[in-house]
Every structure is written in C-alpha cells, then in structure tokens.
C-alpha cells in the first residue's frame, strides 16, 4: 500500500491507497494538527500510531510539505522509518507532468501542483480548484493539464482568529450557516459575515476566472472544492460543482505512479 502525507500549515492529511491507476482506492485517511516543531521521530510516531497494524503493508510513501520546518523532518522520517521505498517527495524540480505556466514555477506550492494533477486526472479540463485551508486558493487548470496560476486569499480560520482577538462573542460561536443572512443576534451576524462573506468571495473569483480565461466559460468546467474547510463552505458556494476531500492525496498518488513508470522505462 501507498502512504500519502500532505503536510499543511494547519493540518497534516494522511491517506493510504491500495491498488494502482484506475483501480487505486483510498482505504483510510486521517487529519492531525500540524506542529511545526515536530521532529522526524515524533512525526513517524503519530503516523505509525494511526496506521496500526497496516504499517506493515506500507511499501512506499508519497508526500509534500508546505511548512519549511517540517520539509526536512519529513524527508528524514521517510528514509528512517519506512525503508527504501520507492518514495516520492513532491518538491521543486520533481517531474509531475504538470506544466507550470507562471512567472516563477519554483514559487508554486507543491500542494497546488498535486491538486492540479489530480483535478485534470479525474475530470479532464479545463478545471478550477478551490482549496479551503489556511488560505483560500483558487487555481486554474487548462484542458491540457497546465497549471495557469490562480488567486490566494486569507482563509476562513485566519479571519476568525483575527476577529477573536477583539470579539469575545466569537470565541463561543460555532462556525456554521445561520438561519438567515440577516443575523438576529451577534452570533448569527458573525456566522453570516464569515460564511456568506467567504462564499461570495469564492464565487466572485471563480466567475472572474470563467470570464477572463479563454475556454473556461463552458458548462462542463468542473469547479472542485478540497481542503479541510471544504465541508463547511461547499453548500454555501454557488459555483462549486464537486467536492473531493482527498484531492491532494490523489495528486501525490499520481506523482508516485508517474515516478514508478519512469523508473521502469
């Protein structure tokens, strides 16, 4: 089985895949809180604890990290705790088959590349990927699987944390859609502003991309939601067409399989 590890700023998303290609299936996945001070051994201990007896079935690891302090630790962890692989760590310079049509390809986060690869592999193109995480990232993927660039905005959690510093009520507020956009109390007003405000932001960015990018105005363009906050936002956004929680993990799987094919060649 293949272990996939997506180290993000807020969460670490883990998944185990069985099978290859069209027959690949995500059999388990977990999310744990990101601690930027994790050592390689501590990271391995957390992962192996979740895997349980399945750890003996892991034959390879595919991973990425958007947290600089954990990038090296993950590299050490993979080599020390999961044998010789073959492993695939998605970093600048790794061949993914995704052309990066941007000014500086090295600036593109590995998670965005993985999402583009998975979105094109699943849905074809063109496609728009909306990742609801620490930041809200809206990326365009061409019909040929090219990464065209995108938009990055502060995520829902960042806004909540900023408000919480100055609004005592927010600390007791559950993040969910209120009864109405017109809140009848402070809690509902905060819920409305956060949930519907961010939904409107996403819809506006998606609509602008569809208007401005050639070929993105067709009815068959998939707008794919992913990220740990996607379940909160999916039903509130009018432009989203699909929700794939494991999109980044699937992209890592595809990177791993491409690497195996190159080695066989």
TrEMBL record:
- Subcellular location, in the record's words? Cytoplasm
Q: Which residues form the active site?
A: 111
Q: Which SUPFAM superfamilies match?
A: Actin-like ATPase domain
What keywords are assigned to this protein?
Answer: ATP-binding, Coenzyme A biosynthesis, Cytoplasm, Kinase, Nucleotide-binding, Potassium, Transferase
Listed GO biological process terms: coenzyme A biosynthetic process
Fetch the InterPro entries from UniProt: ATPase_NBD (IPR043129), Type_III_PanK (IPR004619)
- Taxonomy, superkingdom: Bacteria
What positions does the entry give for ATP binding?
A: 6-13, 134
List the pathway annotation. Cofactor biosynthesis; coenzyme A biosynthesis; CoA from (R)-pantothenate: step 1/5
Q: Which Pfam families does the UniProt entry name for this protein?
A: Pan_kinase
What are the required cofactors? Answer: NH4(+); K(+)
Copy out the cofactor comment. Answer: A monovalent cation. Ammonium or potassium.
Q: Where does substrate bind?
A: 109-112, 186
Listed under GO cellular component are: cytoplasm
Q: Provide the GO MF annotations for this entry.
A: ATP binding; pantothenate kinase activity
Enzyme Commission number(s): 2.7.1.33
Give me the reactions it catalyses: (R)-pantothenate + ATP = (R)-4'-phosphopantothenate + ADP + H(+)
* Chain's role: Catalyzes the phosphorylation of pantothenate (Pan), the first step in CoA biosynthesis.
* Family of this protein: Belongs to the type III pantothenate kinase family.
Q: How does it assemble?
A: Homodimer.
* Name the UniProt record assigns to this protein: Type III pantothenate kinase
Q: What is the lineage of its organism?
A: Bacteria, Bacillati, Actinomycetota, Actinomycetes, Mycobacteriales
Q: Which gene encodes it?
A: coaX
């Amino acid at each position: 089985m293949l272990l996939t590890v997506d180290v993000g700023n807020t969460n670490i998303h883990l998944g185990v895949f069985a099978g290859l290609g069209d027959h690949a299936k995500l059999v388990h996945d977990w999310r744990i809180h990101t601690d930027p001070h994790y050592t390689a051994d501590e990271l391995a201990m957390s992962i192996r604890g979740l895997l349980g007896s399945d750890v003996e079935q892991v034959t390879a690891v595919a991973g990425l990290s958007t947290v600089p302090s954990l990038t090296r630790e993950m590299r050490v962890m993979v080599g020390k705790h999961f044998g010789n692989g073959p492993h695939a760590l998605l970093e600048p310079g790794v061949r993914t088959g995704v052309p990066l049509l941007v000014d500086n390809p090295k600036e593109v986060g590995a998670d965005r590349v993985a999402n583009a690869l998975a979105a094109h592999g699943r849905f074809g193109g063109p496609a728009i990927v909306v990742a609801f995480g620490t930041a809200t990232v809206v990326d365009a993927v061409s019909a040929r699987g090219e990464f065209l660039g995108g938009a990055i905005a502060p995520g829902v959690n960042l806004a909540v944390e900023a408000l919480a510093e100055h609004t005592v009520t927010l600390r007791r507020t559950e993040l969910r859609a209120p009864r109405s956009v017109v809140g009848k109390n402070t809690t509902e007003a905060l819920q409305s502003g956060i949930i519907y405000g961010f939904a409107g932001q996403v819809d506006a960015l998606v609509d602008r991309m569809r208007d401005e990018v050639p070929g993105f105005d067709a009815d068959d363009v998939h707008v794919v939601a992913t990220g740990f906050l996607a379940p909160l936002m999916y039903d509130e956004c009018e432009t989203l067409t699909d929700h794939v929680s494991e999109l980044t993990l699937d992209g890592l799987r595809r990177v791993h399989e491409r690497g195996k094919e190159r080695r066989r060649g």
